[in-house]
C-alpha cells in the first residue's frame, strides 16, 4: 500500500536511524579516544574507521528526509549508554549494538518501508543492515582477542603491519616497537585485518 511520506512510519524510522547512527558515531569517537589513551592505536583506528561509516549511514538516512526540510520530526526510541573502562567491554557493547541493528532494527524498518511503498528506502535499510553485520563481526573478533590478551599475538606465524609506517613483520607476535619508525606495539594490526589489503 502506498502511503504519504509525511504520514508514514518510514519517515519516523528514518529519523530514528539517523539519530542512532549519529549516536553510534559519537560513541565510537569516544571509544577511539579511550583506546588512544591506552596506547591501543589499532583499536583507535578501528573505532574511527567504523565511526566514519556510521556517519555515512546517517547521511544516507537523512537525505531521504529532504521532503521534511524545515520541519521537526518527533520520535521516541531507546539508545545505549556504552561506557566501560575496558576496551574489551566497549568492543562487546559495540558488537551487541551492531548485531541489534542488523538482526532486528533495520530489517524491521526495511520491511515497513517496503510495505508502505518506499522501495529505495527499504533497499537502503537492508543494505546498511548487512554492513552493520560486518561491523559486529569485526568488533567481535577484536573483543575476543582483547579478552584473550591476543591483540598482538597469534598462535602461529602471522604478518603484522605497522599502521604508522607500513612495515610488515612476520612473527607469532607484533614487535614491542616498530623496527622502522619506533612506534609502539599498539600500532600493529594483523595484515589480513587491514581494510586496504582486501
Structure in words:
The chain has a 3-stranded antiparallel sheet with strand order 2-1-3, with no helix packed on it. Strand 1 and strand 2 (168-173) form a beta hairpin. The model has no long low-confidence stretch (mean pLDDT 95). With 198 residues, the chain is mostly helical. The relative contact order is 0.13. The protein contains 4 helices and 3 strands. Helix 2 packs antiparallel against helix 4 (119-147) and helix 3 runs antiparallel to helix 4 (119-147). It has helices spanning 9-37, 41-63, 87-115, 119-147, and strands spanning 153-162, 168-173, 188-190.
- What is the general shape? elongated
SSE ordering: HHHHEEE
List the uncertain runs: none
In DSSP terms (H or I, runs of 4 or more residues), the helix count works out at: 4
Summarize the structure.
The protein is mainly alpha-helical and 198 residues long.
Give me some keywords for this one.
mainly alpha; single chain; 198 residues; 3-stranded antiparallel sheet; 56% helix; 4 helices; 10% strand
Protein topology:
Layout: H1 9-37, H2 41-63, H3 87-115, H4 119-147, E1 153-162, E2 168-173, E3 188-190
Antiparallel strand pairs: 1-2, 1-3
Helix pairs in contact: 1-2, 1-3, 2-4, 3-4
Amino acid at each position: 500500500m502506498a502511503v504519504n511520506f509525511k504520514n508514514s512510519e518510514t519517515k519516523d524510522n528514518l529519523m530514528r536511524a539517523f539519530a542512532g547512527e549519529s549516536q553510534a558515531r559519537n560513541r565510537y569517537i569516544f571509544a577511539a579516544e579511550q583506546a588512544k589513551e591506552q596506547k591501543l592505536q589499532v583499536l583507535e583506528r578501528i573505532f574511527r574507521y567504523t565511526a566514519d561509516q556510521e556517519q555515512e549511514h546517517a547521511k544516507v538516512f537523512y537525505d531521504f528526509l529532504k521532503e521534511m526540510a524545515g520541519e521537526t520530526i518527533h520520535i521516541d526510541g531507546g539508545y545505549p549508554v556504552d561506557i566501560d573502562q575496558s576496551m574489551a567491554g566497549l568492543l562487546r557493547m559495540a558488537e551487541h549494538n551492531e548485531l541489534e541493528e542488523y538482526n532486528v532494527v533495520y530489517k524491521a524498518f526495511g520491511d515497513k518501508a517496503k510495505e508502505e511503498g518506499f522501495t529505495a528506502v527499504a533497499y537502503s535499510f537492508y543494505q546498511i543492515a548487512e554492513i552493520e553485520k560486518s561491523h559486529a563481526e569485526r568488533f567481535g573478533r577484536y573483543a575476543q582477542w582483547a579478552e584473550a590478551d591476543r591483540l598482538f599475538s597469534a598462535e602461529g606465524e602471522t604478518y603484522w603491519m605497522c599502521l604508522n609506517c607500513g612495515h610488515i613483520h612476520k612473527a607469532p607476535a607484533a614487535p614491542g616497537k616498530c623496527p622502522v619508525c619506533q612506534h609502539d606495539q599498539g600500532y600493529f594490526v594483523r595484515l589480513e585485518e587491514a581494510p586496504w589489503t582486501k
